[in-house]
Design brief:
The protein is mainly alpha-helical. About 50% of the residues lie in helices and about 5% in strands. It is flat and about 55 Å long. It starts with a helix and ends with a strand. GO terms for molecular function: electron transfer activity; heme binding.
């Protein structure tokens, strides 16, 4: 048990530092917006009932089940 707690704390700190490293530039956001428009992502990711964009709502039948 004595070795478990320090290992747990060390792993938690390691993951929190890694998560904070995510910096987003305006160029990256513009690129994502461009790709979402080019791929017509809104067609499948819009709720059919409320019309809210990127809210899901379209069931897709696949060989492994409904997504």
């Amino acid at each position: 048990m004595k070795a478990f707690v320090p290992a747990l704390v060390l792993s938690a700190v390691s993951f929190s530092v890694w998560a904070q490293d995510a910096t987003v530039s305006s160029e990256l956001i513009k690129r994502g917006e461009y790709l979402a428009r080019a791929g017509d992502c809104v067609a499948c990711h819009t709720d059919g009932k409320s019309g809210k964009t990127f809210a899901g709502g379209l069931a897709m039948e696949t060989p492994i089940g409904t997504i």
